[in-house]
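Practice problem 4.
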């Protein structure tokens, strides 16, 4: 039970009129002193009660608001902390400590909103930070990312440039700046800054051992062995395979390290002389003279929107596998459409979101979905004809052979989108409101793949409109 702080120990939170015989100002001073004692003892709940009682006596007490900000910040109640600190700051603008705490809270709120894809709100928080502290490089960097994800590329690029003026060696800011440049279509500058990713190990799957030997810089290399690794995701691997024949034109032996899922698919790929598993042990055994990363190839070839290698299709499925998969498909005169609905969390939705396709006649759908979300194929939306043969898929060679037997692939932005597009198959891709750099802004086509058509979200987390547009287009 809460007792009167006028008791001897003075350690408990106040209740009612604590010291009725004292003038209000003396009561306020006692509450203030006891609040500081409680804060020093980390008795935050009691300190909160003291502060609230103090504010009941003196609503404009800036110090009480500031202390409540501390308490709420410690308990991760950022919104409440900011409200209190803002009140304290504006009641006492000359106070130096509260603005610093306020800036930190604003920054953390921006990060929290960005993590929840609330980019416009995040922009507001980061803008507050840089308005009061124009030398906060991290805030300018985060502001740039949030602005980019709202499609405001010009101010985003300006924010990144300001951040780099202050911290020119920060690899994370270079990385985020690169993706904004690429999204804006400035591939040459974007891929140059993209090279900073190797200085920050959390930006993909890069490991130091991938570039232990001399690094290839794009020069001719006759008589030498060049080992190429991939340091990003599966979709990136498939997208950048187009450069390998160009690499081969410049030299001797091209060795490509690929994950297990890709080995059969890339067997006999033009431009690859030796295909090895993507492991450190196999890489050492390859005895290469030079190394590079596959995602560095666009930079090494000075790629612009006008010089993207356009030799699509550059992937071709194994003819024998294509025949095997043809035998598995039911005979039908309907258009055969492959569907994918799940990848990483932000790009995914459920099979049920494809329900508008059930209103389209003359189609038969085939699941291309792998992973946990594949179970949804057992209960498709009513009226949607969906055949699931994925139990026969061993790797991407099988997926490619199945796609070769279809008329169209409809997918979220995932590796299957790149696989189908690299095969030259008509591919309709559902793109998030904040798209990956490779899909640029506003376009419904792609300079990377001539057979791709993009269906973009109008609002974040709302897939209904692009799916309805797909149904209407079918």
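Answer key:
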């Amino acid at each position: 039970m809460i007792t009167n702080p006028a008791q001897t120990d003075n350690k408990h939170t106040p209740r009612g009129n604590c010291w009725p015989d004292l003038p209000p100002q003396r009561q306020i001073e006692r509450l203030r002193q006891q609040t500081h004692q409680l804060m020093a003892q980390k008795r935050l709940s009691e300190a909160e009660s003291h502060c609230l009682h103090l504010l009941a006596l003196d609503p404009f007490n800036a110090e009480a608001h500031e202390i409540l900000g501390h308490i709420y910040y410690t308990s991760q109640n950022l919104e409440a902390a900011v409200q209190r600190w803002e009140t304290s700051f504006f009641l006492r603008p000359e106070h130096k400590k509260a603005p610093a705490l306020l800036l930190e809270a604003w920054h953390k709120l921006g990060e929290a909103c960005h993590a929840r894809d609330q980019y416009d709100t995040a922009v507001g928080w980061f803008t507050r930070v840089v308005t009061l502290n124009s030398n906060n490089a991290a805030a300018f960097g985060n502001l740039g990312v949030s602005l980019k994800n709202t499609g405001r590329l010009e101010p985003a690029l300006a924010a990144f440039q300001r951040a780099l003026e202050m911290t020119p060696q920060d690899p994370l800011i270079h990385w985020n700046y690169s993706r904004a440049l690429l999204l804006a279509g400035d591939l040459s500058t974007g891929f140059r800054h993209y090279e900073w990713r190797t200085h920050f190990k959390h930006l993909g799957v890069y490991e130091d051992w991938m570039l232990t030997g001399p690094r290839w810089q794009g020069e001719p290399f006759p008589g030498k062995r060049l080992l190429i690794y991939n340091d990003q995701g599966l979709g990136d691997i498939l997208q950048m395979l187009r450069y390998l024949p160009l690499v081969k034109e410049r030299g001797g032996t091209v060795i490509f390290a690929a994950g297990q899922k890709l080995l059969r698919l890339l067997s006999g790929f033009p431009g690859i002389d030796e295909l090895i598993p993507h492991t450190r042990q196999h890489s050492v055994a390859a005895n290469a003279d030079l190394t590079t990363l596959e995602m560095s190839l666009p930079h090494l070839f000075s790629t612009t929107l006008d010089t993207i290698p356009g030799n699509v299709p550059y992937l071709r499925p194994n003819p024998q596998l294509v025949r095997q998969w043809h035998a598995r498909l039911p005979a039908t005169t309907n258009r055969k459409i492959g569907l994918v609905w799940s990848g990483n969390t932000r790009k995914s939705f459920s099979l049920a979101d494809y329900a508008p396709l059930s209103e389209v006649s003359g189609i038969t759908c085939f699941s291309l979905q792998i992973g946990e979300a594949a179970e949804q194929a057992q209960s498709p939306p009513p009226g949607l004809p969906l055949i699931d043969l994925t139990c026969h898929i061993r790797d991407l060679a099988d997926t490619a052979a199945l796609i070769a037997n279809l008329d169209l692939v409809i997918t979220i932005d995932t590796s299957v989108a790149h696989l189908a597009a690299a095969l030259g198959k008509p591919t309709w891709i559902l793109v998030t409101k904040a798209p990956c750099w490779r899909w640029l802004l506003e376009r419904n086509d792609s300079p990377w793949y001539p057979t791709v058509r993009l269906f973009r979200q109008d609002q974040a987390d709302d897939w209904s409109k692009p799916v309805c547009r797909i149904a209407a287009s079918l």
